[in-house]
Amino acid sequence: MENKLIYKLIKFSTQLYFGWVLFIALLTLLPGQAIPDFNWNFLSIDKFIHFTMFSIMSFLGSVKFSSSTKPKSIIISSIISILIASTYGFILEYFQTFIPQRAFDYADLTANVGGAVFGIAVFLYFQNRFKG
Questions:
Q1: List of long-range contacts for 11-18, beta carbons under 8 Å, 24+ apart
Q2: What is the model's pLDDT at position 52?
Q3: Pair 57, 85: CB distance under 8 Å
Q4: Each residue of 111-130: b (16+ CB within 10 Å) or e?
Q5: How buried is residue 85: exposed, middle or buried, by Cβ count under 10 Å (0-12/13-18/19+)?
Q6: pLDDT score recorded for residue 39
Q7: Using CA atoms, how far apart are residues 71 and 77, in angstroms rounded to an integer?
Q8: pLDDT at position 113
């Protein structure tokens, strides 16, 4: 059962990855007035959302970019995924400076990068667990 899920994930990895990248852009580039007014400081939900979005992005990126189960390929795909997710997070933070009621936030960028690294850790865990 688990292997069927993994094969489906691999089969649709390109669509999932680019769909998720678009989803992140839509959420992070909304004008400030379009975002519900929650108490964002409570447990830092905003940073948790950034962390989670970029964890999923880097995990899906590693699945997409990993062409084999060879250790070198896995390391390269992991590095590529972290670099892409981190750069994408920086670019989106920069674009927020042009959107009303939004601003560049280093804490968001830190959550993005931390999430990207965590997503790779999850990918590597599953990669080792389902080898063979």
A1: 13/60, 13/63, 13/64, 14/64, 16/60, 16/63, 16/64, 17/57, 17/60, 17/61, 17/63, 17/64
A2: 96
A3: yes
A4: bbbbbbbbbbeebeeebeee
A5: buried
A6: 60
A7: 10
A8: 97
Looking at the whole model, is its pTM more than 0.85? no
Is the separation of the CB atoms in 21 and 57 below 8 Å?
yes
- The secondary structure of residue 130, as a DSSP letter, is T
pLDDT for 23 equals 92
Q: What is the pLDDT of residues 34-68, one digit of tens each?
A: 666 656 555 578 899 999 999 999 999 988 887 66
